[in-house]
Amino acid sequence: MTPPRASVIVVSRHRPASLRRCVISLQQQDHPDFEVIIVADPEGIATVRQMGLNLKLVVFDQANISAARNAGLQVAAGDVIAFIDDDAAAEPTWLTRLTLPLRSSQVIASTGFIRGRNGISYQWRACEVDHLGQDHPIEATKPMTRASTPQRAVKTQGTNCAFRRETLCQIGGFDPALRFFLDEADVNLRLAGFGLTAIEPLAEVHHGYQASARRRVDRVPLSLHEIAASTAVFLRRHAGEADLEPGRLHLSCEQESRLSRFTAQAKLTANAAKGLLESLESGWQDGLARPLAPLDPILPNDTDFLAFGETGPRAGVVISGRFWQRNRLLKQALAARAQGLIVSVLCLAPTQRAHHIRFTDDGIWWQEGGLFGRTEREEPRFRWNRFAIRVSKERARIGLVRQIE
To answer: What is the distance between the alpha carbons of residues 177 and 234, in angstroms, rounded to a whole number?
Structure first.
C-alpha cells in the first residue's frame, strides 16, 4: 500500500551536528514520496546545505518551536505533515508506518513510539492528555485509532507525529504563545472532533535528548521558565479560571520533586535548584500575562513539492561479530553503506553488559552489549547464550522496524 505524499518538518536551533544526523536517518526512509523542510538557525542551515540534498530551507533563529513549526508548515506541499526533532533518528520504516493511517479520510493525526537514549528502552509510548495538561497512559500493543474530545485527546509526541495538512492549517497550526512544552498537546485538544488519531507502535524514532538552551545533556534543566509559562498558557486556553492555582501547585510539586532527584544524584546544587524554582515562578507570571491571540487559519501556499529523492524500499544487512573485531565490523559496515544498504551492526562481548543502540554519523545502526546481557530492560540481567542464537534473536527484534536483508 502506497503511503500518502508527505512533508517532514525538522526544527533545529544551535545543534547542527544532531540535525545532520537526523537528516541522514531520513535518507534511509522506505517512504518513496516525501519532502524535507529544515527550519533552523543560520549555522544549522549552512550545515545541511553542505549535504547537497533536496531540502526546503527556512532560516529561523527564535526560541519558539511553535512559531518555527508554523514557518515550516507555510512552505509545506505534502498532504500529510510529519514532525521529528533534530536530536532524533528515525527507523527506516518510520515515515511509511506513521503516514499510512492517514490514507483514511477519518484519520487526521498519528503518532508512534519513541526509544530513549540507549536506543532500546521506551521514552514514550501511547497516552492521552487532558485539558489540565496531565498524561494518561494507553495500553497499545498494536495499531489502533481513537477519538478525542476537548477534555481528553490522544497525545501525539512532538518528535514522532503526523497530521493532515489541510486540518492542521485550518486550526491555525501551533500556538506561538506555547514557545516550548505542551505545544502538541494543545494541537491535539484543538483537533478534537475533526477525526481520529492513529497510534502506530512500530513507527519508531530514537530520541537522544541532546543539550539545548533549556537543559544539559544529562537532562538537568537550565531554566524552568518556558515550562511554567506554557503550562499557564495551556490552562488558560483549555481549563477554567478555578484550575489555574491548582495547576500551579501541581507544577511546583512536580518540578520540586524532579529537582530533588537531581540534587540527590549530585547533579545539581541546592543554590542552582533554588534558582530554577525562581525561574519557574517568573515563567508562570509570564504565562499569565501573555496575550492569547486568536489562531487564524494558515492560508494555502503555492510552494511546489520538492521531492527529497532517492528514498523508498531497499535492502538491509546485519553485520555481527565480537568486540575485538570492532575495526573489521566498522570497515564492513561502511562498505555496505556505500552500496546504499540499511546497515545494522551487532558487536558482542563475552559479558553480561546491557545492550544499547546508537545511530552513528555515518548512518549505521550500531548495537553493542554482552553476549549474556539483556536487551529489553525487563529481561534477566544474565542469560546464557550461544553467539549464533543471540544474533538470531537480535535480528528478529530489529527486523520488525528495519530492513535486515
So the answer is: 9
In sequence order, the 6+-apart residues with CB closer than 8 A to the CB of 393 are: 385
Helix locations, 54-105, DSSP H: 65-73, 94-99
C-alpha cell at 242: 478555578
**What is the Cα gyration radius of the chain?**
22
For residue range 9-35, list pLDDT tens digits in order.
999 999 999 999 999 999 999 999 999
What is the rounded distance in angstroms from the CA atom of residue 43 to the CA atom of residue 124? 30
Contact residues for 397 (Cβ-Cβ < 8 A; gap 6+): 375
* The model's pTM: 0.96
Query: Which residues have C-beta within 8 Å of that of residue 195, sequence separation ≥ 6?
Result: 105, 106, 107, 108, 109, 164, 167
Residues in the chain: 405
pLDDT greater than 90 at residue 217: no
Is there a contact between 35 and 75 (Cβ–Cβ < 8 Å)?
A: no
Contact between residue 115 and residue 121 where contact means Cβ atoms under 8 Å apart = yes
Give the residue from 125, 113, 84, 111 showing the smallest Cα distance to 199.
111
Give SS3 for 77: coil
Residues 6+ apart with CB under 8 A from 386: none
What number of H helices and E strands is found in the chain?
11, 17
Q: Are 90 and 205 in contact (CB under 8 A)?
A: yes
Q: Is the pLDDT score of 210 beyond 80?
A: no
Percent helix, strand, coil in the chain, to 5, is 35, 25, 40
Backbone dihedral angles phi then psi of residue 275, each to the nearest 5 degrees:
-65, -35
Output the CA angle 117-32-45, nearest 5 degrees: 55
Please state the separation of Cα 8 from the chain's center in Å: 12
Residue 25: all three cell numbers together: 536517518
Determine the Cα–Cα distance for residues 335 and 338; give it in Å rounded to an integer. 5
Residues contacting 65, CB < 8 A, separation 6+: 11, 158, 174, 179, 180, 183
Distance CA 127, CA 59 (A): 33
As given in the structure block, the three cell numbers for residue 208 are 537522544
Closest CA to 5 of 36, 34, 37, 27: 34
Question: Taken in order 300, 12, 234, 192, is the CA torsion positive or negative?
Answer: positive
